[in-house]
């Protein structure tokens, strides 16, 4: 366990560190807000012991800032010289979890550390369960792309964000060409394998962390591209089409090419869609046109 001790008084930092070290934990010290934030940025801090009276920024303000900046929860115990109830309450309201009065008693300090470690462990276990649950409920087991349920949620969220931030949201609907004849001739197992490979090829062309690839159903996929212009989406669609050509997954029974191709439909939020459902519909319509125009192409 790495424990960050934030206190402007050197003697206290040293005394508290000695207690922590004696218990087999690793102390890391900071004399104020700037140093503390730098340490936290580097990560791997499991608990914070926080002084309240400090010149640069007091412990309450620093705690509020940490709670705002840090994505994950780290337990914070205040070290306070005051035993006033209102003072303690203020610390909890600022986002602290517990407090200790100075001078620090080694037995009390280590007992409180153990209590916090237990809570942190429970939270970590719960987070793990939640991640597994999210994977189970939102990922397609075959391709590991986001499933339909995940897509619905992501699309709704992306639409809200693009409204709030007034950005452009693009969407590409992909439908593999002549996939029925692929299955009929190569068998369903190889069809499944092909869907996996197809997913990987498309995923490789989605470079931004916010981009999402979902399996809409069967051999149909949706790429959700937040913060992307129409021209940007058209470029990605062209890249996907050439990546499929490069990958050259053999399809001897396709009328379009000797390899697996797809038809792509592109829509963009600034082309008049009134909601996310309409954005999806526009892209789906464009796929239909791409099929009509000969497949292995994209249509906006
Ligand atoms: P088009 O170019 O017009 O899109 O023709 P297509 O044959 O791709 O379209 P169609 O909708 O007629 O057929 C889709 C096929 O996709 C039907 C089914 O055999 C196959 N398919 C759908 N889901 C799966 C799956 O999970 N695994 C496998 N192996 N095949 C699937
Ligand atoms: Mg102080
Ligand atoms: Mg289809
Ligand atoms: Mg079809
Ligand atoms: Mg198809």
TrEMBL record:
InterPro entries, A to Z: CheY-like_superfamily, Diguanylate_Cyclase, GGDEF_dom, Nucleotide_cyclase, Rev_trsase/Diguanyl_cyclase, Sig_transdc_resp-reg_receiver
GO biological process: phosphorelay signal transduction system
Reactions mediated catalytically: 2 GTP = 3',3'-c-di-GMP + 2 diphosphate
Residues with PTM 4-aspartylphosphate: 51
Cofactor entry: Mg(2+)
Every Response regulatory domain range: 2-117
Domain GGDEF stretches: 167-300
One Pfam family from the record: GGDEF
Keyword Phosphoprotein: yes
Keywords: Phosphoprotein
SUPFAM superfamilies, alphabetized: CheY-like (SSF52172), Nucleotide cyclase (SSF55073)
Enzyme class: transferase
EC number: 2.7.7.65
GO molecular function, one term: diguanylate cyclase activity
Presence of the UniProt keyword rRNA-binding in the record: no
Entry protein name: diguanylate cyclase
Species this protein is from: Amphritea balenae
Taxonomic lineage: Bacteria, Pseudomonadati, Pseudomonadota, Gammaproteobacteria, Oceanospirillales
């Amino acid at each position: 366990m790495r424990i960050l001790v934030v206190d402007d008084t050197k003697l206290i930092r040293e005394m508290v560190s000695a207690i922590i070290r004696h218990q087999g934990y690793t102390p890391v010290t900071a004399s104020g807000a700037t140093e503390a934030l730098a340490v936290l940025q580097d990560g791997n801090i499991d608990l914070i012991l926080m002084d309240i009276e400090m010149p640069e920024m007091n412990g309450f303000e620093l705690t509020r800032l940490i709670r705002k900046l840090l994505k994950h929860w780290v337990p914070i115990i205040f070290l306070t010289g005051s035993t006033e109830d209102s003072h303690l309450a203020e610390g909890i309201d600022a986002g602290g979890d517990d407090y200790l009065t100075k001078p620090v008693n080694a037995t009390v300090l280590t007992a409180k550390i153990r209590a916090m470690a237990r809570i942190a462990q429970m939270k970590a276990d719960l987070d793990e369960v939640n991640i597994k649950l999210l994977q189970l409920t939102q990922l397609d087991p075959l391709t590991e792309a986001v499933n339909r349920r995940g897509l619905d949620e992501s699309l709704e969220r992306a639409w809200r964000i693009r409204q709030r931030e007034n950005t452009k949201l693009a969407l590409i609907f992909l439908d593999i060409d002549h996939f029925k004849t692929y299955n009929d001739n190569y068998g369903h197992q190889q069809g499944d394998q092909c869907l996996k490979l197809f997913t990987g090829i498309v995923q490789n062309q989605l470079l931004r962390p916010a981009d999402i690839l979902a399996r809409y159903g069967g051999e149909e996929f949706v790429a959700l591209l937040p913060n992307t212009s129409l021209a940007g989406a058209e470029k990605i669609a062209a890249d996907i089409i050439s990546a499929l050509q490069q990958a050259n997954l053999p399809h001897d029974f396709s009328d379009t090419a000797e390899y697996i191709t797809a038809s792509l439909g592109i829509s963009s939020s600034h082309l008049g869609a009134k909601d996310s459902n309409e954005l999806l519909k526009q892209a789906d319509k464009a796929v239909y046109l791409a099929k009509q125009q000969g497949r292995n192409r994209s249509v906006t």
